[in-house]
Structure formats: structure tokens, C-alpha cells
Amino acid sequence: MPRPDPAELYELTEDGQIRSPTQTHSASQYVDGRTIDWLQEEAVERERTNSQRAQHGVRGLLLPWFDAARMWLVVILIGIGIGVTGGWLDVLVKWLGDLREGRCSYGFFYNQVACCSGVKPGEACTDWRTWSEFFGVGPAPAQALLQSFVYVSLAVAFAGSAAVLVKTYAPYAFHTGIPEIKAILGGYVLTAFLTPWTLLIKALGLALAVASGLSLGKEGPLVHVACCMAYLLSRFFKQFRNSEAQQRKLLAAAAAAGVSVAFGSPLGGVLFGLEELDTFANESEVMWRGFVASAVAAVSLQWVNPFGTSKLVLFQVTNASDTWRAFELIPWLTLGVIGGILGSVLIKLNVEIALYRRNSALNEWPIVEVIGVSAITAAISYLVVFSRVQASELVANLFQECDPTKIDYHGLCNPTAMWENVFLLILTAAIKVLLTAWTFGMMIPAGIFLPTIAIGACLGRAVGLLTQGLQRAYPTAWIFLSCPPDPSVRCVSPGFYAVIGASAMLGGVTRMTISLVVILFELTGALSHVLPIMISVMTSKWVGDAFGKDGGIYAVWIAMRGYPWLPPVDFEDKGDTGAQLMRPLERLVVIEDEQDTVLSLDGMLNDHDFHGFPVVRRQEFLGFVTRDKLRLALAPLLCEDSERRKRCFFSSQTSSPDEQVDFSSLLEEAVLQLRQEVPKELVVNMFQKMNLRQIIFTTGGKLRGMVTKSDVVKLLTCNFPHSGALGSGARRSWA
Amino acid sequence: MPRPDPAELYELTEDGQIRSPTQTHSASQYVDGRTIDWLQEEAVERERTNSQRAQHGVRGLLLPWFDAARMWLVVILIGIGIGVTGGWLDVLVKWLGDLREGRCSYGFFYNQVACCSGVKPGEACTDWRTWSEFFGVGPAPAQALLQSFVYVSLAVAFAGSAAVLVKTYAPYAFHTGIPEIKAILGGYVLTAFLTPWTLLIKALGLALAVASGLSLGKEGPLVHVACCMAYLLSRFFKQFRNSEAQQRKLLAAAAAAGVSVAFGSPLGGVLFGLEELDTFANESEVMWRGFVASAVAAVSLQWVNPFGTSKLVLFQVTNASDTWRAFELIPWLTLGVIGGILGSVLIKLNVEIALYRRNSALNEWPIVEVIGVSAITAAISYLVVFSRVQASELVANLFQECDPTKIDYHGLCNPTAMWENVFLLILTAAIKVLLTAWTFGMMIPAGIFLPTIAIGACLGRAVGLLTQGLQRAYPTAWIFLSCPPDPSVRCVSPGFYAVIGASAMLGGVTRMTISLVVILFELTGALSHVLPIMISVMTSKWVGDAFGKDGGIYAVWIAMRGYPWLPPVDFEDKGDTGAQLMRPLERLVVIEDEQDTVLSLDGMLNDHDFHGFPVVRRQEFLGFVTRDKLRLALAPLLCEDSERRKRCFFSSQTSSPDEQVDFSSLLEEAVLQLRQEVPKELVVNMFQKMNLRQIIFTTGGKLRGMVTKSDVVKLLTCNFPHSGALGSGARRSWA
């Protein structure tokens, strides 16, 4: 890393004074791969608001108000931005998807629904032409050949161009983005992940990837897009530009808005932020912003109205019987168990594939991989009837109850074809598990939610069909006595079993609980069935956790990438204390007050990559100095020979300041200190709850050791076998 | 308080050894009014699980498993218990309520619905007889007189007997219980609040109070009942009996289950625990238990099926149009503002009445007050048509859209009587505000949710009627152009405005956000309207907070009672440090190592009521000794004259142990220490997040001062004018 010119870091303040770098604390002080110091950030923010309030007269009253107004403006803009973007992405995806089958005769840029919107119900739509009609191909085999050729080649073209875009312009735009966002919200610095360029490529690539028919969803990437927007907007305001902590609070709200738009689930967005991103626990104010951003985003999405239904509910469950019977608990619990097991299997499979990809020739040929997988996916999709349509359409159909007045989707409602349907559904699920495990991690934007829902819906519908078949075959068995005696009245609703299956599968893969339940019933509108959904999510999480305490697919990817993220697990020590966790004094690099010279300090900075150094005087702990502050203070002194050999003092009570360099302004004295006898559990707990970067251990004022966030992360992820397997090798840099 | 006999506190362990009181840490060590030490509790729990795991062979494997099994057993039993209790309470209330109007001819213990269940639709029910029919009173005026006489006198009898029960047997069974539960979950010890006696009286008194028709709800008290049940169940298992922290984790799950049953809202229960009780932030495990307890409770309630509908949704919203128009945002935002203002007014009114009650003669005559208010309430209820029925029935009717096929509730759907209806609705709301402000705090079990919903629903329906009237009067105005042109199609749904009004009012009174939204749509089933509900809750919270940062009615009551509860507010200091917050060394009572004698320590214990004392040697901080441990250790020594003058040493490195008493086992060394330069904000933050009881401030190992939880509570509640106004005068006891 090139050393920054210190002059660049001096900054002209609004009142024309030059602020020294030890006073200012701009966001630029952090480089990618570091972890921000929340306590420090909060202190700077506190100082800023206090200086505002201290201003005389109206200024002192208005400045804080302007601050709040700007913040709410940004939150509302984020909501509107992601709502509108999400809506238009849906329109784009629909158009691209339809393009694989044909085009509108009177305008290239109309999708099938828009093209046929002028047609009265009952009439055939002649404006929309399939490619074979458009090119005037006559014979049926040639038609089929042309259609499937265009279908597969456009799929490959979409996926390939998405991969090229990502690979060339914004490598961080690949994958879901949730693991990175979790790490960033926890304090990790990864500016490259949030650039406008990433925003553009991720949005565009996402539309292409979804339209290509690969086994992926748009949910996670939309959250990423929302966060990029928030970052971009925050750059326009000094109050956010200068504070990484304030930026992160905006990002949290943006993430909630992203989920809100992805699922049409404003409440689910807030809860996702609460449960999965684990950010709102810190401040109710942040949750509140997430709430507002989420609501605004949902209103904006409804205003864009991409599906022309003016509804937020994506997969409306209709006709499901309102009551449920006790015997149904058996298939539902079964689905929960299947979801838990299959979720674990999917995670493990995904990890193995990711490791294989990293260590094989595929690592060098990501675009070829995407093209190959998209070709295979498109080909298989043509063969297996249920996967020919977009996953979202499949899910919508599986969630639908059979209704004689509506079109029967691929004979799913034909009672005589039960076994064929069950076989096909299970086959589809199995294929989707394999494809998803491979797709999630390729060089394209890809979410895991929708494929998981599709897999679960297939299995759930299969179990539902089996239960229904059993009930119809033995309507008088004692277990089915609670069913209505009239055989024409439906007792078992297989469509609702698909919802249960989807919840169970999602529970197994993500290990989320409340937010999942809320998202699912905002997604389906099946409020009266909240209890069965809760029960299946509960069961699948239990079973999944029993198969491996990996904490869901996002936590696994965070561990594989080696991000410094503290999983919110309840750590239990075995009687250990902080002394066992800390890096003892002998292994610490410390600054000796009034002993170290300018030159020796510079050498220390070059030798060690640590974020900061404790300052001691004869073992007595004085305070903490961060690397960046020290480097900035040393830079001007290194040029003058007379200064280079001078000793430096950090404590303010020193007696001989004349021949020494005064670094006392660098020293942070308000550092958390604990005794080393404190239980390890408490130390871990403090890191988890207080967002700390380090804790100093002292006894009677003497430095004993230090624990950094990275030590705690290592401790908590040590039982996961592939920690850091996908990391960039720079794992130590945030230590 | 009588001093406990130390011998009683010695305990025979399972392996037959006598455990010294310094090793054991039974729950009985805490007396009411103290705050538990979470860190200490966690340490004991950790020791216990470690000793279990250390057991040889199968025992070491099975013991932790048994622990978990017992815990889940208790959680599930709590869920079943409160579900069944809640269901049966509903049945009891229905019966008592119907009894005010008549009785079943073939059985005294049937309510009206059960009595008429055999009657075919369309036929008149002759088995249910009003009192005038039963007594064979002929003339209409005499009938009305008899009916109203029985109505009012039974109301007074119910309310009076509830008050007598509460006053005589369980004073803690009065009021809602939520403030106390919040304090208890935060660590406050109030065993009297959770006794089986309180459980019985609260449940019985609640049924009587609700049936009496007073302006109160069953929601908060049901949470209290659930917590009492959890406490009772936990007493059967040693692992909970001996650990206040484990008990509290069970109580949190029970509270979630209580809300789940009260509103038929399993998800709302979990979120209530998350947001309002602020307990799950600590451990995901606890949230998980709340989830399970909540789901089990809802299933049990559905199994009891008190309303015979086999539905959880209490106030089903039907026929509401699925789409909404942009202009409707204006009345909805108006409702949000009204809710925020009126919520604040209700809180302030309630506070003033509570203070007046405390300082006037009413304080001595609680039962007379209840009887008087119930008589007034019953009389007014008879006069104002909308309040004659139970509040829950009123709400259900206000939430209902007009439907020509159904009975028109008191002419609410008559378009020509709009102004009369609006006037009546506003009058009802105003009366209910006054009655509720008075009732909430009397000597009976009383919840605030249902009355608040009723007030909000009246106002919302009124605004809805006005909007509808405006739209019908000017259907061609540009603002109403989005309405369907056909005037017979409904454009504005006043029933849904009632839901919005209820949300806004609840938001203003409780200042909850997400959990409120979830509870409301689990209550109404109006999932497609989640956005308007969110917007109104948002607005009313904003407006309410602008009128006073009191944090809702529960926080106000906690402050008035002076419980040591830390509000989860974002505290911002003005550049202050811990030094300004702490009680400095000069004002601390400390133990001097090797200086204090047995006698002087005993004198210190008698003079000062503090929970614990720092131990120092020449200003150097050695550790912390709790009052209870010290008292137990001193007790046997005080009897012998030779021991009483001996000096005591606490530090283990002392050189002359012979002539001194060894108290080193009492010393807690793993105490949190900070420097006094740490920002005040951080200190407050640590108390809020880590559940601490005290923080010691040291510099270079020297004791500088101490901050206790009570100091922080005082700091955070200092801007509320009536802090501790209803306290028992023992406010200092938990310091």
C-alpha cells in the first residue's frame, strides 16, 4: 500500500482554519480491510453535535435540526430510490425473460403483458409473436427447434454478459452481498463494495442473471443495490462522509428497504435488519430509520406497480381452507425435518463446490463457468416441465390451490396423476438443489432466497399431494375423521403445503426465525396460517442446528471469506478467563513512553501491521495510540535529521518536555480495561454487544495483555472447518 | 428486615457435602427491592454447567441434556398453561358479561351463545331469557328499569369484588403488570409480584373486572398471569429455583406467550418481548424460547376455542377494499397526528389522576373508588349507545365494513345520519379517554390496550365517515378522481379507518412500533393494509415523542413507581465523562484491607444499606464484596469475643494471615473497571447493554469512584417530573 501524503489528509474546515490530522477523523483514515472503531466514531460524532449546540443564537438551535432533516431526507430518498429501482428491475427482467420466447409486433420494448394489454378478455392476443411466428417458420419440429435454440442461446447470452460485466467492471458485484453487508454493518471497511460502479453493474447484472433463468433470486443482490445507493447518497453530505458509523446506520436502513422491496414485505425488511443483520439491537433510532425507509420503499414500489396488480403480496395464496386439522401436524413436522436436513445438505454442498471452484482450474475461468452452467440450466429447464418457467412463476403456481375455474398448471390438479406429479416435483427439487448449490457463488449477482423457496415449494406440494391422496383413499380412517364428510369439499390444501415446505427449506438454509415468518406471510398473505408456518420454521431450524451449528448460509460464507464478523452466538466458556484469550504482554508490540524515538516508532510501524499500539511506562498502561494517527504525526518529523533521534513522550505529566517530542495529543486514554480474571464469556459478550475493537487487560494499572476483535472472531469461528478458505490472504490485516 | 439465621442458608448438596454460603448462591439471597447481579448469576450458571460436564461417563453427557429437556418442558408447559387459562378466562368473562343481561333457562352456567347453540339459524332463541323475562315483569318501563338495575348493580358487584380480592389477598395483582415485568426482566427482584396467590387473584379479578364493563382490557394482566405461571413452574426445578437469571429468561418467554394469547397474535408476542420488554437483545436463545412458548400458547388457545370460531384473528376485517388511493394518505396522516396528541394527553391525564389519587383521601379508600367509578361507568355506558356493549364487541363492529346483507350496527351505515354518527363516535371516544385515564391505576387488574383500541377505533371511524361523506358529496372533485366512477362501488372504507385510528392511538399511548404493527394485523387479518398501519403508527409515535419524550405509558409508570429500570433511550452527553457521573472515592463507603475489623465491618453493614462495598488497600482497588456474602461470613465470628477485634484481610497475597481473619474467598476480583475519562455516554451504554449493577472507576489501579445502576437510572429519568412519586419510599434500597 502506498503511504498517503500527509498533506492530503489535512483538511480545510468551514471556518477557514486548518485542522490538524489528530483532531479531524475523516472516513478516509480507514483503508479497506480494517475495522472501524465504534467508540472512537461515537466520540467524534458526540464532539461534533456538542460543538454545534455550543454555537450562539439561532445557529446553535438550527444546526442540529438541519442535521436531523438531512438524515431523514437521505433515509426517504433511499426508500424512494430502491423502491423505484426494484420496480423497474422487475419490469426489465420481465421484458428480458419474455424476449427469450418472442417479441411484440408493434414495439420491441414491450413485454408480453404490456403488448397484449389492449386485448379484451377472451380474445387471443395476436400482437405478441413467438420467434417462430416472427420469422415465419412453418413446420412444427422446426418451430420447436428454433424456439429452444433462441431460448437457450439468449439464456447463455444474458448470463455470459452479466458475468463479463461483473468480472470486468465490478468484481464485488458478484454473489448475494448479504455476507459482506453483515460484515460492513459490524464495522468492517470495504469501500470497494459500495461504489457507484458496483451499484450499476449489480443492478444490470442482476436483471440479466435473473432473466437468464439460472437458479438464483434477486433478493440478496437487491439489498446490496440498496446499500450502494445509500452509500452514494451519503457521500453528498458531510455529516455522513466524515463518519463511518453514521454511514453504517444509513446502510442498515437501506438494507431493510432492500428486503422490503425484494419481497414486497415492509415489515419483513425491518425484522430482517433486526434478526439477520443484527444491527438495530444497538440503537432504537436505527430501527426506526429502517422502519421508515422500509415503508417508503414499499410505497414507491407500489407506485411503480411493476406487475400491474397494485398489490405488494407477490405469491397470493387463495382458496386455502381457513381451518386446519390436527393430523396435518404430522406432514408439516415432516416437512420441517426435511427442510432442516436438506438445508444443511445444501449449505454443505455449496461450501464444497465453492472450495472446489477456488482450488481448481475454474478459478481462472469464471465467465466460462457461468456460460457452461447457464447452458446446462437452460437445457435441463426445457426437459423438466416444472422448471421451464421462471422460478417465481413456478412458486406462484405451486402456492395456488386447485380451482376448477382456472387453468390447471401442468396437470398438477389431476387427481389420477398424483404419482407422476409427486415424482416430477421431487425431481425438480433435486435438480434445483444441485443447480442452486453450484450457482450460488459464481461470478454473477445471485440470491439464494427464491431458489430455496422453489425447492421447498416443490417438496411441500409433493407432501401435500401425498397427504391428499391418502385422505381421499381412506376418508373413513380415524385420523381423517376431522375432515368434512362430503368428499367434494377439500380437506387437505396442497398449495398451502407448498408454503409450509418453502418456510421449512428457508429455515434450514438461512436459520432465520421471526423475520422469515413475517416475510413469508407478507409474501403469501396467508395470515391465518401463521401458526403452521411458525411450527415448520421452528422444526427446520432445530433440525438444521442439530446437523451443524453453522448459523446459516450467510454465516458460512462470512467465515469462508474470513470477514471480521462476530456471530451473535451464545458463547459458553469452560471456566476460562480473559487471561486465556488475551495476547499476553510478552507477545504485544508496545510503545515505551519517553523511551521510543521517532525513528524507532517509524520502524515499528513498518514492521508491524497492527491497527494500534498500547503505550506503557515501565509496564504501567498509559493509553492507546492508533497506527494512522501515529503515522500522520511522524511523517513531518522524519524529514528532519535533528528530530529523528528525539524521544517521544505520550503522557501529559512528563517533566522534561524540551528535548522530547510531544505526542500526548495522540494518546487515547478512555480505553476499556478489564482484569484478566474476568470470565472469557464476558469478554466475548462485551465484544458482541459493545462493538469494540480491542480490550486492554490490566492489573493494578499494569498492562497484562490485549484482546482484539480478530481474536474473538477466531475463537467463535474456530469450529467451522473452512474459515478463511476463500479469503484474500490478507486476513491478518484487520487484526 | 430480620436478619436470617445463617444456618438456614447452608445447604446440603446432592453429594452430601455441606456447601458454605460463600460457594452457594441461591436465589433466596436476594430480597425484594434488590437488583440481581447478572454477571454473578451467569458465573454461577457457568460453574454449574461446567461441573456437570466434568462428571465422568454417561452422567457428564446426560446431565446437560436433562437440563435442556427440563427447560423446554417448562417452556412448553407455560405455553399450554397460559393458552388454556386465557381461553377459559374468555369463556368466564363471556358468561359473567351475559349474566348482566339474563340467564339460560335450562342451566345457569351457560352463556348466551352456548345456550342458543341448539337453535337453527333463523329461529328465535327462547332458551335465553333476559332478567325481566325470567322474573316475568310485564310493563316495558318496569322491564327497562329492572334490566338497567341488574346491569349496573352486577357491574358494581363484579368490580367491587375484584377490588376486595386484590386489596385483601394480593395487592400486587392490581394494574396492568407490564411495568413491573419490565423491571423484573431487567433484574429487579420483586418475588411478591409472582406468587401463586397473585396468579389466582389476578386471573379471577381480571375476569370480574372485564365483565364489569369498566374501561379496561385483559392484555397486560394476562402477561402478568403468564409470568406468575412461569414463576410457579420454575419453582419445581432446582436449576431455575437457584438462579434468578434463569428464572428471568423463562419469564421473558412467558411474557411473549401471554401477549400471544391476549391478542391471538403469536408473532406479535415474540416481537412485544423483543421491542417493549427489551429482553431478547441479550440472547438469541431467549428469543427462541419466546417463539416456542408463543406458538404453543396460540395452539392451546385455538384448541380451547373460546369463541367457537376456531380462529385466532379476533377482529376480522372483512370486505375492506384491497386497494387504497393516494388521497387517503391525508386522513390517515391526520389520524396519526390525532393519535399522537391524544396518546400524550391520555398519558398526562393518567399521571395527574394517579398523583391526585395518591395524595388525596382516595388513597385510603381504594375499594370505594372502584365501586364509584364502576357505577359511573355503567351508568354512562347505558346512556351512550356505542359504549353499552363490551369494548371488544364495539371494536369488532367498528372494524366491520358496511354490508347490506348484515345487520346495521346502531345505524352506523346509514348515510343520512353521518353527522349524528360522527358526533356520537367522538363523544364515545372522549368519554372513554376520561374513564380510561381514571381506571388505569385503580385497585383492580386493568390493561390499557383494549380501551385505547376502542378510543382509536371510534375516532378512526368518525374520520372515515367524514371522508366518505366528502367523497360522496363531491365525487367529481379532482382529489377523488381515483375513485371508481360508479357511485355504488365503495371508494372509502370507514371500517378500515377505524383500524388506522386504533393503530395511531396505540402508537401514541405505548410508543411501540413494529410489534404494534404485527399485533394489529394479526388482530385484524388486514395484511394487505400493512403499509397504512405502518404509516399511522410512525406518525403518531413521531408526534407523541415531540410532545414529550416519556417513552410511553409503561415507562411513565415505571418512573412513577421508581423501579430500577434502564429505558433503552439513546443517551447523549454534552462532553461529560464518567467522572461527572460517578460517586467519588470520598463519598464511597469502602473496606480497608487489613485495617477493618470484624466489629467495624458489622457496624458498616448496619450503618449503610448498599448492596456491596469496594475493598481497597491504601487507595489501590482490590475487588468488590457484596453485602450478603459479608453478612453471612461475619455472623459466626460476631458471637466470639476473641474474633470480634481481629482484622480482616481480603487479598490473597497478604503476608500475615495468622492474627487476621481470612475473607479472601469473599472478594470478587472480576469486576468491570473503567477509567474516569471514559465518556458518560459509554458508561450509560454499558449499563444498558451489559445488564451491569455497578462499574468501578480506577486510574493506575487506584480506586477513583463507582457508578451503580441506580445512578444511571436517576440520570435517565431525571427529566420526568414525577420520578418515584408512587414509590414506596424505599427507593434507595436497590442502590
TrEMBL record, chains A, B:
Domain CBS: 588-635, 670-717
Keywords (A to Z) from UniProt: Chloride, Ion transport, Membrane, Transmembrane, Transmembrane helix, Transport
Membrane topology: Multi-pass membrane protein
CDD domains: ClC_3_like
GO annotation, cellular component aspect: early endosome; Golgi apparatus; plasma membrane
Subcellular location: Membrane
A family per Pfam: Voltage_CLC
UniProt GO MF annotations: voltage-gated chloride channel activity
Tagged with keyword Transport: yes
Keyword Metal-binding: no
Record-annotated membrane-spanning stretches: 71-89, 144-166, 187-210, 222-238, 250-274, 286-305, 326-347, 367-385, 422-440, 446-467, 512-531
Lineage: superkingdom: Eukaryota
Designated name of the protein: Cl-channel protein
Lineage, opening ranks: Eukaryota, Fungi, Dikarya, Basidiomycota, Agaricomycotina
